[in-house]
Write a structure and sequence with these properties.
heterodimer; A: 234 residues; alpha+beta; six-stranded mixed sheet; 6 helices; globular; B: alpha+beta; 22% helix
Amino acid sequence: MAGKEYVCVMKLHSEVPEDKVTKVLDEFQGPLYQRPPVRSSVKRQLRTRTIYYIDFFEMDERNVLFKVGCEAGTYIRKLCYDVGEVLGCGAHMQELRRTRVGPFVEDKSLVTLHDLSYLFSQWQETKDESMLRKFVYPMEKALELMPKIHVRDSAVDALCHGAHLTAPGVLSLDAGIKIGDTVAVFTQKGEAVTMSKAFVSSEKMLKMDHGFVAKTQRVLMPRGMYPKMWRSNK
Amino acid sequence: MQRTNEPWKIKRSLVVKAEEETDMRFGHRPEERPIKEHMRFGIINLDKPAGPSSHEVTAWLKRILSLERAGHGGTLEA
């Protein structure tokens, strides 16, 4: 699952010296236990989540501004509450903005609904699609951070029909794939075909000449884009 | 505690197992996808205003871009 980054305003319930706040925030970096809050969309059982970093920006009386990078499924509301408990004064989350989801960050790719509405009408009027393409990315953008496998043209349509990837279909792959990792399967043109679960490690995959190497979990490409190269009984 | 390496900074390296030419008669490079297909399978990095829900915004977007289907990558469930 995709890592997240947020900018957060935490409200302390009484005034605390800045050095104490920064020290406690530092302590929250690393793995921690969290039980999802009462109002949450997941089962409320204790689980571990990793806070990759907390960058303190500034504080003004009882408001604390910081940036936090964390694993998917980390509750920032809970983090603020827990920081308040450790500080002894209590605290709650005042404001939150997500600044990263996996490969998506606040950069030139960011677009507002107003922009999109304008870009779309411009495209309809002028038939010039270049501006629209600056802000609408191919789905492959979402897979940027995943380990990749590139396959032969002849393997593509079978994968689109849900077949598992076999060793002879593999042309190249990222090093370091472990059993059970979710991988993105691509054509040689760089089109996403499936998301799959590796049956074997990268090293093993390189040596294999037959057999399944990855289990198809999500098909991303429509069927029939590539020719059917597989035999069926009929 | 120390900072942990962020997963989005992981560097990967591709290893080649076999080589083969791709047939240009089939498929398209992602950036050369015909616009209709591109819009159908496109993804945007939306600066969502506070207030309306992700669900509502997705519905508006679907109408603005006259799409058959639209979805979002997860709500901000703090």
